[in-house]
Fold these 4 entries.
Entry 1:
Amino acid sequence: MQVIATAGHVDHGKSALVTALTGMQPDRWEEERRRGLTIDLGFAWTTLPGGRTVAVVDVPGHERFVGNMLAGVGSVPAALIVVAADDGWSAQTAEHVAVLDALGVAHGLLVVTKSDLADPAPVLADVRERLAATSLAGIPGVAASSRTGDGVPAVAAALDEVLAGLPAPDPAAPVRLWVDRAFTIRGAGTVVTGTLAAGTVTAGDRLSLGGQDVVVRGLQSLGAPVERAGATARVALNLRGVAVEDLSRGDALLTPGAFRETAEADVVLTRTVDKLPAELVVHIGSATVAARVRPLDGAAVRLRLAAPLPLRVGDRLLLRDPGSRTVHGADVRDVDPPELRRRGAARARAADLAAGGGAAADLARRRVVPLADFTAMGWPVPAGATTVGRWLLAPGLADELAARVPAVVARYRQLRPLEPGPPTAVLRSALDLPDADLVAGLVRPPLALRDGRVVSADGGLPEPVQRAVTEVLARLAADPFAAPDAEQLAAAGLGPRELAAAVRDGQLVRVAEGVVLAPGVEERARRALAGLPQPFTLSQARQAWGTSRRVAVPLAEWLDARGVTVRLGDATRRLR
Ligand SMILES: Nc1nc2c(ncn2[C@@H]2O[C@H](COP(=O)(O)OP(=O)(O)OP(=O)(O)O)[C@@H](O)[C@H]2O)c(=O)[nH]1
Ligand SMILES: [Mg+2]
């Protein structure tokens, strides 16, 4: 399916042409039919002779209803521009074309209607000339009469060709469905309609509406139920989880997590303007939000929205001054712009925006950002960027930060030689990172992450401590259960802090306060006990180990605690 919107001055025959093409009457309201005047958006569809299905969003031409016109064309990739042969280019022809031009609509068909009333040739020539300076330059033009049917088949054929040339939307893109109508249907509940410009909606989908979850119970397209609809399409969604009173035109149904609401955006106007008003109205999709305008420099402008919108980088906005009715096109370049405090910051910002450095430049400025946030802004992940957990790091930044880690570790160890290395929180603050989890991605050999600290993989105790520990280990190698006593430890300079450091470093095993043995003691102790009759007494164990009660008592309890031995009721033990 393709979707096209009408455009043109009041009474020039838009709705009549839609009826001639589709056989459907787009004016839905009794008042519209009675007055012969379109007020709100109308919808009709048909299958063209070439086999292509087209849905038409019919807009009002009257100047009072331009707001409805804007909502109708906001998500539509092509326009059907209607000019009456007996009236020619008129005020709302100009206004509508200016809107389409600002939105960058580049596909369309010009139809000069009422060819039964006047010669269409001069109007065709005049309008084509006026379109030449707009995004619609060069679109084909056809003359027709909806009254006599003359030229209508030619309109259908030309339309088919225009639609064939439309770019294919991405069916896997996230969904942002701008609501153009919301109503209830007896028995079904809340229904919204809109033009799906990208992505796919399937029954059962969960979508986000102003931060709230809603479920698509079912959907229809062109009046018939469907299991799924892929862009471009007109869709009607039956929603669970929201009352019709909580919905209105301009709301957006979003793929959860794929968009972020923003009240501030930096944009670049498609054309430089001498002076912008301080307040403008922003239009995107079917939404309309007032905005304060801060010109930065040249065509770059900062917008402060009166209400947040789910904007993405690359969105085209329509900025409109309701007083003068002038419109401007603007491309969203940043949906999370930096504060501008320093003198000259606005000018520098404008230069950056104008340069349009894309995802790489934006990420370089942010340095570190949650990956989900960055993609929700509308950026692709630039080449060379690295991810650490949920974070995205600018190209080169991980290496740059990793290179600074050894110095931080060395300095920390100098100040606290008995600690194995700094906790990740110390590196987080030293490297000015938003999250200590990032440190894991910045530690390179011979450093390693252990128990929440950055340590050297080759161990490392201060020189004198290492020497004393090595001596203790040498003695334990000869006599594995002869734990040094307090006096011996003190003589070697091994106080509680030094012992703790050696234990943390894996060089000694702490069996009890002041009782340290060599690594592997558990297996050695078990093997000695295996030679005893089971169960055995503490005294038998002590003899098997060849040690004193000072060591044997805590060692036996330590083995109990580790599940090597089981203590029985009569104070004897056996191996488990
Ligand atoms: N003679 C003649 N009359 C036409 C033709 N097309 C439309 N009309 C008449 O022109 C009047 C306006 O037509 P509409 O189709 O309602 O015009 P519109 O552009 O939809 O008007 P709005 O939606 O109000 O902007 C109606 O009375 C139509 O019958 C045509 O090709 N020939
Ligand atoms: Mg109409």
Note: Residues 485 and 515 are 7 Å apart (CA to CA).
Entry 2:
Amino acid sequence: MRRLVRLIRNVLGLLVLAAIVVAGVMTFNVVRRGSQQVQVAAAPRLEVDEQAAASRLGAAIRFRTISDAVNPDQSAEALHGMQAHIAASFPAFHAAATREIVGGYSLLYTWQGSDPAARPIALLAHQDVVPVSPGTEKDWQQPPFAGAISDGFIWGRGSWDDKGNLYSILEAVERLVKQGFRPKRTIYLAFGHDEEVSGQRGAVAIAALLASRGIRLDYVLDEGLLITDGILKGLDRPLALIGVAEKGYATFELTAHGTPGHASLPPRDTAIGLMSRALVRLEDNRPPMRINDTVAGMLDTIAPEMDLPNRVVLSNLWLLKPLLLREFDKAGPSAANVRTTTALTIFNAGDKDNVLPGNATATVNFRLLPGDTQASIADHVRRSVDDDRISIAPVSGNTDPPPVTATDTPSYAALNRTIRAVFPDVLVAPGLMVATTDSRHFTGVADNIFRFSPIRATSEDLKRFHGTNERLSVGGYADMIRFYVRLIENTAG
Ligand SMILES: [Zn+2]
């Protein structure tokens, strides 16, 4: 009996000791790292004629530059109209730079630098927009293609994605030319016209043209992650994420082969049944969650800025990673940061209630975390479906995740400092872009690729992206212009 009491006492003692050690390590990890934010003086606020700039962007929205994969010339007239508006709106820049039309409708501007030894840079945006979902026109507070300016916002499809970036870049260079600024590095402005339908005719052609001229870019900056406010629990300051990584894209078409026939004599296995079971297996067997290096870097950078409970978790992923992953999974959209996603997007089979179809087809779209590849995900699909009556074929246009951009470079530091100077209240961290951008096509011609849009957004705003009531605040638009002016001064001056 006495021996048992001693044993229990020893075990309890060890448990208490272990708890003290764990608590000590956790506390150490919390206090070990202070803020990693670079200290930069706020940039003097540039005077911007907000109303004039907003009205130019409003005019751009009136051109319905909707891209279409099947009919690439669908919006020819709108694209030509907007390009004429651009030339008329920014005459000083057009006198200082050269303009080329690439792939039919894409624009490539070259603003020659004074130092031929300095590596050029490229600022990207796209001219095309997505259509308005049929039937939702009446839900818009302002018509989607009127370019209305009302209640302090510029309204319409493309105001945010991506004519806001396109026109604010042009506003910035126009202003710099008028000030007599001459870049040291050559600056390219590359404005594709089919980003929303994969960029094959636009960005791909521009990158190929640069490559054919032997041009190597120091960095490319494209649309991407935003300055979000109130989206991350436990962080009470706005957060700017610089997209240094981007997910890959892989779509597979599945076909289940059954025996067509009369519904009165159904076999045990039908095409629809086979396909349904295969799709359930794919959804039940999603690729596992994991924290890749980019997301780890993001968590590490924001941890010291969080409130205490979240700071404890983020500083102690060696112990609490499962807890964090569970939270990511519960939160829905943020799970895209920690897994290769599986999305069942198209399902087709049958056309008559008393006939068994011979085939059932389905389309599944995966967004690949860096580290996964088209080949590895094809393997995953085959193993999960595990049925040789179902054929699996990748569609064309699939892409591996592009290489991850380093964060210990002068160009990352310059971008980081520019954000902190123009938006002094904002924290900056590297991040993972979960959608694709035109910038991925520049992998072969650029040392560094960044995906960042200098736009403030709340979670309420995110629904407007590709959605209803897309808009951009007039004040926010002026800040975008300020950002691009400072970025060019800081990295090409
Ligand atoms: Zn876009």
Note: Residues 2-32 form the longest helix (31 residues).
Entry 3:
Amino acid sequence: MSATSIPPGVDPGLVPQRTLYTGARMPAIGLGTFGSDRVPAEEVAAAVKDAAALGYRHFDCASVYANEDRIGLSFREILRSGIRREELWITSKLWNDKHGEDDVIPSCRKSLEDLRLDYLDMYLIHWPFPNFHPPGCDVTSRSGDARPYIHENYMKTWRQVERLVDMGLARHIGTSNMTIPKLQLLLRDARIKPAVNEMEMHPHMQQRELFDFLRANGIEPIAYSPIGSPGRPARDRTPEDTVDIEDPVIVEIARRLGVHPAVVCVKWACQAGATPIPFSASRRNYLANLQGVVSPPLTSEDMRAIAGIDRNCRLIKGQVFLWKPGQSWEDLWDLDGVIKQ
Ligand SMILES: NC(=O)c1ccc[n+]([C@@H]2O[C@H](COP(=O)([O-])OP(=O)(O)OC[C@H]3O[C@@H](n4cnc5c(N)ncnc54)[C@H](OP(=O)(O)O)[C@@H]3O)[C@@H](O)[C@H]2O)c1
């Protein structure tokens, strides 16, 4: 093979890994697969297949992204190409309308069937609220049977998620969009504790306290929307939102390194100890993100400068999960350390 015909890409052996409390190793960058209601399933699936050829081994899926059946075709091809199942790290998530005790196992089985897999590496409860809302709905949409977080109910769901491990359908289980008070209850009551927690994390939303809590409890933080989700749906935008990739500190570091500001955000999350899962459907961009985590690290001065631009700017606020009139999205996030009822 001539030098010019070698495909671009990154040796997966060079990608940093996180060791979970079980001893399993998870690649410290994954490809997000939420098309934000604008990138069609076929395009996301094509990106998954190509990203694997370029060295990605970790993929963040969810039933609600409505593309698992397409992504499953890509996984089938990836496995046929000679990449072994054990080399991949595949996550899926239980959607909010499937928290019922009888719904959890069938829901996981459906994701497995769609993804053409025998087991998942990680299965998460996507949100701590069982509140259904239709896909693509408006930010003002509220479900008639919306409920606050009720720990007893969450534990009933968690018991079923634990059974998935016993059954061999999921190797690990975890949480997403949790807060410290909710996690404290779960850690008290779980038979199998969560191995990861997915959380919004980007330079303008660093969530240091939650990050430190997770680390102190042996839970790996997965950073979602690590670039500040510039392509997120209109329903997830408010006038107060700030833009990480336009922040002068990020822009200046990117200029010096000759990369897009998005790559600086991904590098920062990984170097800070999280596992970023940036979405991209563009080869140039998902390749640049992967290269970003294997290239020379940001300087300690860069890391200090980025630590200084946190704005506590939550982008994925979750308004559709509110359960009574007159509430604001802050009520979902237990800001004063108490679970709102
Ligand atoms: N657990 C949860 O509740 C939850 C919530 C939100 C997200 N997530 C997960 O996290 C993943 C990522 O979050 P996200 O999709 O909200 O946002 P994100 O990863 O912060 O941003 C994705 C956007 O950045 C652009 N981008 C990516 N790399 C780039 C680069 N190198 N240069 C320039 N632009 C670049 C992409 O455009 P192009 O496609 O044009 O590259 C896309 O519009 C999701 O896909 C999903 O898997 C989970």
Note: The chain is about 35% helix and 10% strand.
Entry 4:
Amino acid sequence: MKAAILHGPRDLRVEAARDPEAGPGDVVLAVTMAGLCGTDYRIWSGDRPVAYPRVMGHEFIGRVLSVGSGVSRVKAGDRVAVEPNYSCGACPLCREGNRNLCLSRVAVGIDVDGCFAEIARVPERCCWQAPAGVADEDLMVTEPLAVVVRAVNRGALRPGESAAVVGAGTLGLLALQVLKGQGARVLVVGRSARRLPLARELGADATLRVGEEPLERAAGRLSRREGVDCVIETAGTPEAVSHALALVRPGGRVVLTGLPHEPTPVQFFSVVRREITITGSMIYQDEFPEAMRLVGAGTVRTRPLITHRFGLDEIDRAFAVHAEPASIKVAVVPSQGRA
Ligand SMILES: [Zn+2]
Ligand SMILES: [Zn+2]
């Protein structure tokens, strides 16, 4: 097979590689479509070092080629969405249900080889049967969608509440739709105006470019009170965290699911005085089926987020385009999957 192999920061080469073989409990998949995200970009650039050589990529749909001994839930020919994280299953965190927080969690495409290749191998428990009738390009975004399903659920919206989403990238545009699916009125706040028309098309009741007007005022207009009840922060920048805290009403909830890699100054005076609940939300625990259901039901439209597609041979271009403001979700379509 061919695989895009990262040999070091910004040293990504498409090379012939040995086909992965299915050991006990493993599933070997032809990768039909893969998504590129900020995590891949950080690994590619060297901001997040990994053990080299490494095949990156963790958001993908595939067709089962073979299975190892003991695999019973999937068989050759099945189409599956991949949940690219698996935990040890034995530690106290895993046993109490906090699989996503397991300190021994293995991330596909980071700790082990991932999907920027024609063929990938994952444990059976990572595979979810793709619903019939839902296209690969709609399901490709299942992984980031599972992230925001969890974040929104941790916001525990009540009927009639209003919400804001900070960030209008893939996660933000998905969070918007999950919130709309729960009946909330939603304000989307973006750093640039570029994606705000798409946010409105996908159901946003209001949009705001940062700097256009005070965040508090826009939140007050949407909520018709002191601010929105719940904010989902998806951008992962220090500014975005402070925007989230400006949008929320006293007594409201802020869910952080973007990963702010930089130190983030927070006015905790205002958090205490306004009794803001700040909740972290890390990837997902059991949200994959719900994410696939939302796509299958049409509650969440993922296809408009896929702005670019590249073959595996053009993967350098895919990384370049990911960094361009015009792209939202860049897809890699390995050639075997295309056949
Ligand atoms: Zn990702
Ligand atoms: Zn564990």
Note: The mean pLDDT is 96.
